[in-house]
Structures are given as C-alpha cells and as structure tokens.
Amino acid sequence: METKSDIEQTSNKLELQLEDQVLLGPYDYITQIPGKQIRTKLAVAFNYWLKIPEDVILKIGEVTQMLHNASLLIDDIEDSSTLRRGVPVAHHIYGTPTTLNSANYVYFLGLQKLLALGKPGCAEVFTEQLLELHKGQGMDIYWRDSYICPSEEQYKLMVKRKTGGLFGLAIRLMQLFSESQIDLSQVTEFLGLYFQIRDDYANLCSTEYEQNKSYCEDLTEGKFSFPIIYAINSHPKDHQIMNIVRQRTKDADVKKYCVQHMVKLGAFEYTKKVLLELESQLHAEISSLGGNPHLTKLVNELSQLYKT
C-alpha cells in the first residue's frame, strides 16, 4: 500500500515531467525532424585522432547537438524565418516568448550535462565558445539591420566566431578528455568557413534547401551572405543587389532576378572557387595531421553540392 510520502513523490515527479513538456515544447518540436547531424559526424571523425572513450564522445555529441538545435530556435526568431527542416518554425507554433525561454533553458541543460562529466575545464570551454558564437551572430545581425555590407575579411572573422563557435566547442571538449596533443585549430577554422560559405551558396542555389526552408531565404532576411558580399563589393557601381537586399523581398520573381543578376556578376563562380580552395586546404591539413578517412569522406560528401 502506498504511503502518503510515496503519493507525494509520484505527484512531484509527474509535475516535473509536465513542467519539462512545457519548457521543452519548442525544442522537442524542432528535434522531431532531425537535421543532417553534421556536428555528430564531425565528433566521430575527430575522434579518429583524439581517441576518447565512446561514452564521453556520445555525451559531448549530445550536448553539442542540443546547443545547435537551441541556437536554431533563436536564429529563426532573429532572422524572421518561416520554415525550418520543411516545417513551420517553432515560434510560429509556440510563440516567441516560449521559444526563446526554451532555447535558453536548453543552453543551461547542456552546461549541466557537461558539469556532470566532472572534468575541469568544461565550463570554461563552454563559456568561451558560446561567447564567440554570440559575438559572431551579433555582428551578422548588426550588418543586416544597419545595411552595411562587410568586407570578405570581416565576414570570415564573423564566421570563425559564429559557425566555429559550436564546431570548436565539441572539439575542445573532446581534447580535454584526450591524451593527444595534436593541434586541430587550423582544420577547425577551415571547416567552419567551408561549412558556412557552402551553406550560403546552398541558400541561393540548392533546390533541396528551398524545400526545407524558403526560396532564397537570405534575400528575404536581408542577409549579407558570401555570394552577396562578393556581388556588391566587386561591382561598386552596380546598386541592384544592395537595393534588393534592403527590401527584404518575399517576391519570388524579384529573388529569381537577383540570382540571375548575381550569376552575371560572377558571384556564384567566385563562391565555388573559394569553396574549392577551402576544400583543397582542408584535404592538405588533414593529410599533414596524418590523415583521417572519416573526415575526408565527410568533406567529399559535402563537396557534391557545388560540383553537380
């Protein structure tokens, strides 16, 4: 027979479960349709060098994926997005306040899981990398909302912070548990740049991207992505691209015209050239570190986007 104490414990447990359902609603919504799991694949690939225990890599992979998904909830609000992974964005279902709270809650759940690993340095790495992520995101938003087109070098520094923030988090955490002294900073930086420039290219050129988000979403957002930056800065007397970016248009015909004009300005050819250079640098760096078949395979898979 249950005692009063047992009943109270059961009641408290059910209340906590209900609370988590409420707090994690937007997060659970976005994770019901998994992404490409690139960060998890990267963690497995880097473990070819670092050789940390499987249970630790699984925990780090879980935390990194949690932070990535939480950051997407916030990104979609900041970017006024409409689709994510082919479904309406979470804040259009749950509202902006609940979605923001859910994302921030998951950030701290991730930190809690890292602290439970009991390894000195986890909190420091977490803090440093999340600061970098927010610095990069902040500059990206500032340029967009101030209608300031950055230089290519400014863009690359922003990406190093924004995209490299979560890439660096997983790898630096893994290094805390590894006996290897291998220097992975250069390959991590190349990967962050490669991944973001490829994503910028896909946003304006990929039919798969169009299905999962919306057509040329970066133009509607008013974002200064890599191809757009090149188109504007390499042709300072041509103001058409800048004018379209300023409008944040949802008109498909205007966006199609913009893409066609960017083709004429050589923006996509230049972006492909930079991607091929980064791909070559990645392969050279991987080779200099003794090779890594998992990472080489992943880069080769990602490269198919701009080679077909």
UniProtKB/TrEMBL annotation:
GO terms for biological process: isoprenoid biosynthetic process. SUPFAM superfamilies: Terpenoid synthases. Pfam families: polyprenyl_synt (PF00348). The keyword Metal-binding applies. Keywords: Magnesium, Metal-binding, Transferase. PROSITE patterns: POLYPRENYL_SYNTHASE_1 (PS00723), POLYPRENYL_SYNTHASE_2 (PS00444). The keyword Metal-binding applies. InterPro entries: Isoprenoid_synthase_dom_sf, Polyprenyl_synt, Polyprenyl_synt_CS. One of its GO terms (molecular function) is prenyltransferase activity. It comes from the Eukaryota. CDD domains: Trans_IPPS_HT. Belongs to the FPP/GGPP synthase family. This is GGPS1.
